[in-house]
Specification:
The complex is a heterodimer of chains A (315) and B (123).
Chain A (H helix, E strand, L loop, with lengths): L8 H18 L12 H37 L3 H5 L3 E3 L7 E3 L4 H30 L6 H21 L6 H69 L6 H47 L9 H17 L1
Antiparallel strand pairs in A: 1-2
Chain B lengths: L2 H34 L5 H81 L1
Helix pairs in contact in B: 1-2
Classes of the chains: A mainly alpha (315), B mainly alpha (123).
Chain lengths: 315, 123
């Protein structure tokens, strides 16, 4: 207590006690020395955004092709196409309606919506994780400002009481108190992240499994729709003229390019979803072992970039 | 049926569908080859149509099963999101507490300052 000598010791101790209480309230966390690095969480979120766009694009093609085939059946006068499209209404409910059609394109549409909503929920999860890890949440600048305010407050009180307190010592103490507060909050934040990741790992694994399942179903859809589209294309060949044969060949090549790009995208999507679940677990482990700053997420980022370029090819 | 058995069952259906689609492409190639040789296509076309119908049925079933199975997982993720939002609010609250403590020190300082001035006037 040498750094403050006073004439009104009672008041001096009051200010000192408050500063000490501030330090004490937030202390007990000196073991964590650095802020949580939010970059891996931000990269995780951004990579998923690429996955989401590619998944939407592929599902849109799946729906388009399946719907076009349905329309083709209507063109061929298949009566089931129009029969199933007539809405029926409930006599008990004012707003309820029913569509008896169980056409494949309707199921694909429902899948597209369900997958979109599932991906949106997970995108929200990755975004909230990044927000919780974000530097702005426990901003060093805010605490620097607090340290300055605390310092000014303590000095003004000391001056009012005509204490001879060395300004440097008061400043060090103010910084220590606010730094203790920051570290305490930082530790809480890290604890929350570890807990959230551990508690939700099972759900993330299940989400990845569900995503891989639908990616595989869509791959079957695309191949099946290819078979359905290639048939009328090659059927043009026997009756084609010398010139129109070139057009047939070009159309087949164009369709092949589109299908192979789609299958490549789907393969990357399958790998991505599996990788997301693994990286989620590893992020939790890195947080626990305080190695999140050196956490390598480049495979996920590269996968995101790859999907982004495949997506551009598709759209 | 537990989760693992469900996954296995689903995988088996997927593999069956994959085989049917692969067979379909071979059937189409055969149909095209016969067409070029001006052979009778009736039998192959019938078989291909039957196969196409079966594939559509299985695709539809897989889509329906998949949609049904996603409700729970979507709900779980939404609950997790609520959990993170709560944590963010808790952190914001703690930062606010730190700010309030510093403000409180400021208020007390002002009281001390005023009291000190009054004391000096009295003395």
């Amino acid at each position: 207590m040498k750094w403050i000598t006073n004439r009104h010791s009672g008041c001096n101790y009051l200010v000192l006690t408050i500063v000490l209480l501030l330090a004490g309230y937030f202390s007990g966390c000196a073991s964590i020395s650095v802020s949580t690095d939010s970059r891996p969480f931000e990269k995780y979120r951004d990579a998923f955004s690429e996955v989401q766009s590619s998944a939407d694009a592929v599902l849109a093609v799946d729906y388009k092709w399946t719907y076009e085939r349905f329309l083709e059946r209507a063109r061929e006068s298949d009566p089931s196409t129009i029969q199933g499209l007539i809405l029926t209404f409930s006599p008990e409910d004012y707003y309820l309606w029913d569509l008896s059609s169980d056409e494949l394109y309707i199921k694909v549409k429902r899948t597209q919506q369900a997958f979109k909503s599932l991906n949106a929920a997970f995108a929200g999860y990755t975004s909230l994780l990044a927000q919780l890890a974000s530097g702005s949440l426990v901003d060093v600048k805010t605490f620097d400002k607090l340290a300055k305010e605390l310092n000014d407050n303590s000095l003004s009180a000391a001056r009012a009481l005509r204490f001879t307190a060395p300004e440097k010592a008061v400043a060090i103490f103010s910084i220590a108190a606010t730094e203790a507060a920051r570290l305490y909050i930082e530790k809480k934040r890290r604890d929350y992240l570890i807990k959230i990741i551990a508690e939700n790992q099972k759900s993330v694994d299940l989400f990845a499994n569900k995503a891989v399942e639908i990616v595989k179903i869509v791959a079957m859809d695309i191949k099946n729709e290819y078979n359905n589209q290639i048939k009328p294309l090659v059927a043009r060949w026997p009756k084609a003229t010398k010139y129109s044969r070139v057009k047939v060949v070009e159309d087949v090549i164009a369709l092949n390019s589109e299908v192979t790009a789609l299958l490549e995208t789907l393969r990357s999507l399958e790998q991505s979803y599996t990788l997301f679940a693994r990286k989620h677990r590893e992020l939790g482990e890195a947080l626990s072992s305080d190695t999140v700053s050196s956490f390598d997420i480049s495979d996920l980022t590269n996968m995101g970039k790859r999907l982004s370029s495949l997506y551009k090819e598709l759209t | 049926m537990n989760e693992e058995e469900k996954l296995k069952g689903f995988d088996e259906k997927l593999m069956a569908l994959n085989k049917l689609v692969a067979t379909q492409s071979k059937g189409l190639k055969l149909e095209f080859a016969l067409m070029l040789q001006n052979e009778d296509l009736t039998t192959v076309q019938k078989a291909n149509r039957r196969l196409a119908k079966k594939i559509d049925e299985l695709r539809g079933k897989l889509h329906e099963e998949w949609i049904e199975s996603t409700d729970n997982i979507r709900r779980e993720i939404i609950i997790a999101n609520g959990q993170i939002e709560k944590s963010i609010k808790a952190i914001e609250k703690r930062v606010k507490i730190a700010e309030n403590v510093v403000k409180a020190v400021g208020y007390i300082d002002r009281v001390v300052e005023t009291a000190s001035r009054l004391l000096s006037r009295i003395s």
